[in-house]
Write a structure and sequence with these properties.
The protein is an alpha/beta fold and 295 residues long. Helices cover 52% and strands 14% of the residues. A seven-stranded parallel β-sheet has the order 3-2-1-4-5-6-7, with helices on both faces.
């Protein structure tokens, strides 16, 4: 992030109350530090209490302000309870960042007896996020200001293979966000979707080949969130994400062929068990042509 954007970001978030889900690790934790360092009061929501306590201590040790709210975002009743706790503890919420998510890498034909994969993924990525929005939105509407940032995926734009459960859940949230955006426009509430590319976080660690493909760092991902806060756009995407979206709109068959090539180049998670983790020359070259894509 350049100096000008950095200064605008600090002015934008100083003194603001910002709620972040999935805040105990990865993108959420890095963004929480970035926001707190800029003077925001961050409200950290995640399932693991000890990790939340550690995050709070780290932020407070630097002079930042952080409050923690443990919650299993798979549990709708727990979301209602934690929402009440949060709204009782602060006057308002300026920005909600729906970052918590679950990813499953498995081809559809390998999932015919695993319907629960789709249920679990949409439960957290879509229903959990929507439930939280429904609880927080009335307060934003009454104040006639606010921003909701939903962390989506480049896979929604590029139709990533082996991620049908994950991409479908993010696409559902994306469609919800587009509808909501028009409804709250007159209330001066911005709805932003960030089509995040592959980020080197604990979520992708189980897929060993990802050690050898291009990915953003958590700091770079946090910079995309900072950009979204400063500019308040409808969407934030990388160049590849924008190109993929355009390609699918005007030449869907070409998009399909490119994704099919990648699908056939990279092994499934089960097929790669016991094999070397490193990629061959063709795989490495293809991954560099499509930086940040999920394979």
């Amino acid at each position: 992030m350049n100096n000008k954007l950095e200064q605008l970001f600090k002015r934008k978030v100083h003194g603001k109350v910002i709620l972040i889900t999935g805040a105990s690790s990865g993108i959420g934790l890095t963004a929480a530090h970035k926001l707190a360092d800029a003077g925001a009061h961050v409200l950290l929501v995640a399932r693991t209490v000890d990790a939340l306590i550690d995050a709070q201590k780290e932020i407070e040790a630097k002079g930042g302000q952080a409050s923690i709210f443990p919650c299993d975002l798979n549990d709708m009743n727990a979301i209602d309870d934690v929402s009440k706790q949060i709204l009782d503890s602060v006057d308002h919420i300026d920005i909600l960042i729906n970052n918590a998510g679950r990813s499953i890498r498995r081809a559809v034909h390998e999932s015919t007896d695993r319907f629960h994969d789709f249920e679990r993924t949409i439960q957290l990525n879509y229903f959990g996020a929507v439930r939280l929005i429904l609880n927080i939105l009335p307060q934003m509407m009454s104040r006639r200001q606010g921003q909701i940032i939903n962390i989506s995926s480049i896979g929604v734009l590029a139709n990533a293979t082996r991620f049908s459960a994950y991409v479908a859940s993010k696409a559902a949230l994306d469609a919800f966000s587009r509808c909501l955006s028009a409804e709250v426009d007159s209330h001066k509430i911005a709805i932003t979707s960030i089509y995040m590319p592959l980020v080197r976080t604990p979520m992708i660690a189980p897929t060993k080949i990802y050690k050898y493909v291009p990915a953003l760092s958590p700091d770079q991902a946090a910079d995309l969130i900072a950009y979204a806060i400063v500019k308040r756009p409808k969407k934030v995407a990388t160049n590849l994400g924008r190109l993929a979206s355009i390609t699918y709109s005007i030449a869907p068959d070409i998009n399909n062929k490119l994704m099919a090539i990648g699908y056939n180049l990279f092994p499934s998670s089960s097929a790669s068990v016991g094999q070397t983790e490193k990629l061959n020359f063709v795989q490495r070259a293809y991954a560099r042509l499509f930086p940040g894509e999920h394979w």
